[in-house]
Structures are given as structure tokens and as C-alpha cells.
């Protein structure tokens, strides 16, 4: 049997009555709590997670290989969207045995509502990395509301998803703001054209020809959709 323990580092200040916490990292510990049934252990673990999320405001949440149940996942995601949509930057729920369909539902319902999320790690098994509906749910979340997500560990090779991630790395949230001063535009354009911005989350440097094509696509998108054209016409 297994139970769970938690480790977190926190600062004592508070925002909206929640203690700001750099990270919540929950892991399974073997051979602890043998007197508890598996059901009680899972219920206790779920309650622990929800209590921590109700009382703290983490920037990073790691729930990897914690044997989470589907109901736990939906409860956690609901709390994250309600209380942490503007503060959570990193989420890791890998290797909890969720099916591709469950991931699809979670992504479709919640990804677009986590406005500050920059990194998300979802890999469960081989099916989740080839399931078309999971890919579609990721792309939908990126196209709708998530303007800062830069890293995802599944389907990042898909060209449409890669393009959305590249735009976010280039600063999509900033250049869609029509109040941005024209004097800052050279800085944003330089950042968008930087090879480091497009390859910083990848373990291997992309081929030069591929990288140049991605840079051109990002720059074209910025010039076509940013406020610079509207200000010039004015």
C-alpha cells in the first residue's frame, strides 16, 4: 500500500487571504500508513491537496505519480481555475494513469482558464500522446485564452501547437495590448525573432531551416495582428 507526503516552501505574506507558496510538491511514500485502507489513504491524500490549495497560492504544483483518481483531478482543476488562474505558472500531473479521454475533458474545460500557466506536463502513457482529441483540446485552449503557455510535454511537435507556443514565447499577451508604446516595439520584435526564444524549452536545437521558418511565421503574425499597423494608419 502507499500513502502520501507533501513538501512545500512558502513565504508568510498573503494575497487574497492566501499564503504565497513557491511550490507544492506531493509524492507517494511507500510502506507508510499500513493501517489505513487504500480508499482511506486516497481520500486523505485528496483532502490534503484540496486543503493546501484552499490555504496557499502556489506558483508550481507537482502531483506526479500520485495515483490520483479522476474525481480528485476534476476537483483540483476546479479549485485551480477558481482561485489560482492568475498565479499558477507550472503544473505537473504526469503518470497518474488518466486515460486520453479524461485528459481531453480536463484540457477542454480548464486549459483556457489558467491564464498565468507557462508550463504543463500531462504525459500518462502512449495513448495520450497520439490521441487526436487530446491534440485538438490543447490547440483549442491555446487559440482561445491561454496567452502565456510556453511548454507542454505532449503534442509539442505538432506544427499548429508549436506555432501557438512560439507566439506565446514571443510575448503574444504584450503585443496584443494596443496601449503599448510604439517605442517598445523594436524590443518585442527583437525578442520574437530570437532563436533562443523559440528553442529555449527544447532539449535539442531545431534545424536552422526549420527555426528560420518558425521565426518568419511569428514575425508575420505579430505584424499582422499587433497594434503597430493600426497606429500607423492613425
Reported for the largest beta sheet, the result is:
6 strands, mixed
Q: Helix/strand/pairing class, anyone?
A: alpha/beta
Q: Show unreliable segments.
A: 1-15
End-to-end span in angstroms?
68 Å
Oligomer: single chain
Strand order of the largest sheet: 1-2-3-4-5-6
What Rg is obtained from the alpha carbons, in whole angstroms?
Answer: 20 Å
Mean pLDDT: 79
Helix content: 40-55%
Q: What is the H/E string?
A: EEHEHEHEHEHHHHHH
Basic shape: globular
Helical element count?
10
Question: What share of the residues does DSSP label as strand, in percent?
Answer: 15-25%
Q: How many strand segments?
A: 6
Short description:
This protein has 234 residues and is α/β, with parallel strands linked by helices. The chain contains 10 helices and 6 strands.
How would you explain this protein's 3D organization?
The protein is globular, with a radius of gyration of 20 Å. The protein is α/β, with parallel strands linked by helices. A 6-stranded mixed sheet has the order 1-2-3-4-5-6, with helices on one face. It has 10 helices and 6 strands; from the N terminus they run E-E-H-E-H-E-H-E-H-E-H-H-H-H-H-H. The longest helix has 18 residues, at 38-55.
